[in-house]
């Protein structure tokens, strides 16, 4: 099983970034997926979840309204589009395949983790 995040970068405040997570070694289309983030000195927190079909998604309060989670089951990839980025969004962003998940409220019990990709928001 592998989840490989990519696309992390240094972005100016107010900018946008899309990060990706490529999955292999398991049936990606059968799993609900999620994005988490962990800022320095803070606990890892949920950002967004998406059901296995891609038909529904929900977002934690921390970035709600500024991010969109999506997936392409043909490419075994989940994405996180981030807009209006702030310095406090600086973190390592992780994708996870959920063993259990809910949309309302957004919740994921991760079964598989990626290694993370660094997003830095700074001028």
In N-to-C order, the SSE pattern is EEEEEEEEEEE
Radius of gyration: 13 Å
Proportion of strand residues:
over 45%
Instruction: Give a count of the beta strands, DSSP E runs of length 2 or more.
Output: 11
Mean pLDDT: 97
Short description:
The protein contains no helices and eleven strands.
Structure description:
By secondary structure, the chain is mainly beta. The chain contains no helices and eleven strands. The protein has strands at 2-6, 10-11, 17-24, 32-38, 45-50, 57-59, 67-72, 77-82, 91-102, 107-113, 117-121. Strands 2, 4, 5, 6, 9, 10 and 11 form a seven-stranded mixed sheet that branches. Strands 1-3-8-7 form a four-stranded antiparallel sheet, with no helix packed on it. The mean pLDDT is 97.
Note the topology:
Elements: E1 2-6, E2 10-11, E3 17-24, E4 32-38, E5 45-50, E6 57-59, E7 67-72, E8 77-82, E9 91-102, E10 107-113, E11 117-121
Parallel strand pairs: 2-11
Antiparallel strand pairs: 1-3, 3-8, 4-5, 4-9, 5-6, 7-8, 9-10, 9-11
Please describe the structure with a list of short key phrases separated by commas or semicolons.
0% helix; 54% strand; seven-stranded mixed beta sheet; 123 residues; four-stranded antiparallel beta sheet; mainly beta
């Amino acid at each position: 099983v592998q989840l490989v995040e990519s696309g992390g970068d240094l972005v100016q405040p107010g900018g946008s970034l899309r990060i990706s997570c490529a999955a292999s070694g398991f049936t990606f289309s059968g799993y609900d997926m999620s994005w988490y983030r962990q800022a320095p000195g803070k606990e890892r927190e949920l950002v967004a979840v998406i059901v296995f079909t891609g038909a529904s998604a929900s977002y934690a309060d921390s970035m709600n309204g500024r991010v969109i989670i999506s997936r392409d089951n043909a490419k075994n990839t989940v994405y996180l589009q981030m807009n209006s980025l702030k310095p406090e969004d600086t973190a390592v962003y992780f994708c996870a395949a959920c063993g259990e998940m809910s949309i309302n409220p957004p919740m994921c019990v991760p079964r598989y983790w990626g290694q993370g990709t660094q997003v830095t928001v700074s001028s």
